[in-house]
Structure formats: structure tokens, C-alpha cells
Specification:
Blueprint (H helix, E strand, L loop, with lengths): L2 H28 L2 E3 L27 E7 L6 H8 L2 H4 L7 E5 H6 L6 E2 L1 E6 L2 E6 L15 H4 L9 E2 L4 E3 L1 E2 L5
Parallel strand pairs: 2-3, 6-7
Antiparallel strand pairs: 1-8, 2-5, 4-9, 5-6
Length: 175
Amino acid sequence: MTNQQRVMLLLPLFVVWVVVASAGLFYFGNQHYGQFAGDTDWQNSITAEFSLSALNVNENPGIQVVHVLQPDCICNSRAKEHMAVFADDYQVPVSAQHQRSLADVVATGFVLPASPAVLIFDDGQLIYAGPYATGPLCSGSDSLIAPILLKEVQLPGVWLNGEASACRCVFNPES
């Protein structure tokens, strides 16, 4: 058998392998990617009564954030990359950052459809709830919250950001 015949026999096998591997990577790489709130009617949630004190956090003047994670969520590593730059890039001191589980937040009565998420409070009032960034990789360059934290954008009210597509783990109360 010549080299050309071997190549002609192996070429279809290689093409099938590339197609199957690509489909598998696409499926597994994107299974946690989607709209943050999915099909829920999250934006109509009652938020007026939700406060930092419900999460056992003392209210202080200025910006305070609550990082919300779920155990074993594959997207947590991407959120932790964002969390690592809050103090330096966003000027949010470590003392103004808090971490809670999604189950803890939901137990207060506040509906949060997925995690990782960030809750941003300004002078004790919730101004943003939703993902850190958009896109399948949720990179810092796609950050939704940088302008809010740096006070480059003044929100007219509470922004429950359920429309953004990001890496997220949908909340499952049984887990």
C-alpha cells in the first residue's frame, strides 16, 4: 500500500474525528451559556424591600457588592477572575465586598435566577443585579459592571439584568 493510498483511507476518518470533536467541544463549552434569566419573568421581581441587611451585611455609604456563587458551578472560575480585580480596577475595597451563596440570597425572598452574579448597592440601595460580563467566556473586556462601579454611568433605578447572555448556572432549589 502506497503512502497516497494510506492518506486516502485515513482522510475520511480524520474528517469524522474533527467534526465529532468540534461538535462535542461546542456542546460542552456552551451548555452553561445563555440568557441570564432564561424564560423567567425576573425583571418584575419585587426589590424595594431587599437590602444588605437581609444578607447580614452592614450597610455603609458608597458602593458595596455581594458576589453570589453556587457550589460546583463551572462558571465560578470566570467569576473569580472578575472578583480578583474589584479592589484594584474598580476601586471597591475588600471591606465593601461580600460573598453569599445563591441559596442564601434566594432565602431572603429575592429572586435571583442564576449565578455567578453580582449585586451592587450604592448607599445601601440595590442598583444592579445580574452577571459580571457578557459572552461565552465572560471576559473582563466584556464587563457590564465596570462603568457602574467606577460611577461612569448613573443608573436611573434598579437594573435587574436578565437579558445578558453569559456563562451561568441556573438556580436549582434542590441542589
